[in-house]
Amino acid sequence: MQTVQPIRDRFQIHAMKEELKRDSFRNYFLFVMGINTGLRISDLLPLKVSDVRDKTHIVLKETKTRKRKRFLINVELRKIIAGYIEGKREEEFLFPSHKTDLPLQRVQAYKILNKAAKNVGITEFGTHSLRKTFGFWHYSINKNVALLQDIFNHTSPDITLRYIGINQDIVDQSLEHFSL
Question: Which position among 26, 40, 48, 138 bears the catalytic label?
């Protein structure tokens, strides 16, 4: 099984946004929601307009853990949401399938995101890369592993650091110029 990575380069994040926006605003919005909330794809896809309209938080029961969580919608994301949902009905899915009345399926989301990642030269990418990218940048900016551990509902800081790829980065840096 392939381990997916966070996007560690801001230019690649920007390139992904541009690539996805060219194809579809829905696809761009899925990416932006994922990297700004840290929600799992299984929690993002079933969201409806009513879950985000005029809201500061997304409140849901996580699919994987069955725990109730509250996720802040940052100011920038609120602006994007407002534009995206304008004219949409409360019961509409945020990420509708173009073929059914249902939300986009995980496999289709993977295909869309992975194609864009390949087009901009990102490897080791999957739907989980959105959550990992959120975690990587949250940690890089705040340097607070305990806070991120709580956000992700992990049982230890070590799991959180390994999850976002920080442990591997530290190991790689320590070995880069190590020579006997």
Answer: 40
